[in-house]
Design a protein that fits this description.
alpha+beta, 383 residues, 16 helices
């Protein structure tokens, strides 16, 4: 858990169903691999930082992270119990968007609300999902923080073209303070207790090799994290700021201030969205294609594209549109190498020819059916 790789100390690593030397994504990677290989008609994943959407992108299937209160989490086990601000959700996964929509229809029901009254009493709206009304959709291919690889930016252009052929209006759109600001806020919220809860849950457990790096980082005392953050600043400013954000919050007052900051960010984002009169947005599913097995723990910043929608609690889904090509591999030569993060992205993406590449669709809270409808239109453009 809290990793977008997929392995455990008992069974080892799950392999990517398309490129076996790479990861299927995580933490719902086994589900994604099984779906891609035809071993299951429908899957269910969990998502707190992209753990439905990242495996869907890496493995070439579709998945939806719903608004967090549309599916009950009652009785489930959380990685960080009591964590607040970065919302988690259960959601359906499938080979096709229609399969995902069928799963959502089963979950978004009065039965769910009857069993857990904290779930929003909003059933699946077929009229919204089946609507033929044209939509106004925002798009972007770079969040200003981690530049997507050529194939991931190309995927957005492909999706934009398909949606325009459906008659939708596509307009450039960037959420305010998107990118590093929202990503580091998520890191602060997820590490509010400086990792104490995760370390406690790891007590007397065999540490999975693919999580060993994360385990070691979390275990570093705050004082030494501070030293490391400032030492790295001249060499890798983004990595420096990431380490400093992972120190957690110094006191309850700082925690409440961050909660308030998050709420203000939500208001700013929804206001900008409404001002542009958008129905949905399309953007990269991730910053790069499937990583080599074991490398995800060293590259958490790729998830800046997925974490945003957990922070905002917007429904977001992923649909495959293309694959990594030889042209994309050659284009990596022009990828910026501003610091250690960029260099690592290029190194890991080398050899990923054939890897699935998806786009991400997001909508406002409780507009999950709009999200699914746009996902379907992107998929149908390929057909």
């Amino acid at each position: 858990m809290i990793s977008y790789d997929c392995s455990n100390p008992i069974f080892g690593a799950t392999l990517n169903p398309v490129l076996p030397d790479r990861s299927p994504g995580g933490s719902s990677g086994g589900e994604a691999a099984l779906l891609k290989l035809g071993g299951s008609p429908l899957g269910v994943g969990t998502d707190i930082a992209g753990s439905i959407r990242i495996p869907a992108h890496f493995s070439g299937v579709s998945g939806l992270k719903p608004t967090s209160t549309r599916i009950s989490k009652k009785g489930s086990q959380a990685s960080i119990p009591g964590s607040h601000g970065v919302t988690s959700a259960f959601g359906p996964m499938g080979r096709r968007v229609e399969d995902v929509a069928l799963g959502a229809k089963a979950f978004f029901s009065t039965i769910m609300y009857d069993r857990d009254p904290t779930v929003a009493p909003v059933i699946f709206r077929d009229d919204v999902y089946e609507s033929q009304e044209t939509l106004r959709i925002g798009y972007f291919d770079f969040n200003g923080y981690i530049k997507p690889t050529p194939s991931c930016q190309r995927a957005v252009a492909i999706a934009k073209g398909r949606l325009e052929k459906h008659g939708h209006t596509l307009v450039p759109f960037m959420l305010p303070k998107f990118g590093e600001y929202s990503f580091l806020m998520c890191i602060r919220l997820l590490n509010a207790d400086a990792g104490a809860t995760l370390l406690k849950r790891w007590e007397n457990e065999i540490i999975n090799p693919d999580a060993l790096g994360l385990y070691k980082i979390i275990g570093i005392p705050v004082f030494f994290k501070t030293l490391a953050g400032y030492f790295l600043k001249p060499f890798s400013p983004r990595l420096s700021r990431f380490i400093l954000a992972s120190r957690g919050m110094k006191d309850p007052q700082a925690m409440l201030a961050t909660f308030a900051e998050r709420q203000e960010f939500i208001y700013e984002a929804t206001s900008a969205w409404k001002e542009m009169k958008l129905d949905a947005i399309v953007c990269p599913a991730f910053a790069f294609p499937a990583t080599l097995i074991g490398h995800a723990q060293h590259m958490p910043y790729g998830a800046s594209y997925t974490l945003l929608f957990n922070l905002l609690d917007f429904p977001a889904g992923v649909v495959p549109v293309t694959t990594e090509t030889e042209v994309d591999q050659v284009a990596l030569e022009a990828y910026p190498r501003n610091d250690l993060m960029d260099t690592k992205i290029v190194k890991i993406t080398r050899g990923a020819k054939g890897a699935p590449v998806s786009v991400q669709i997001a909508a406002l809270p409780y507009h999950d059916e709009v999200c699914l409808r746009v996902m379907r239109d992107v998929q149908q453009g390929k057909e």
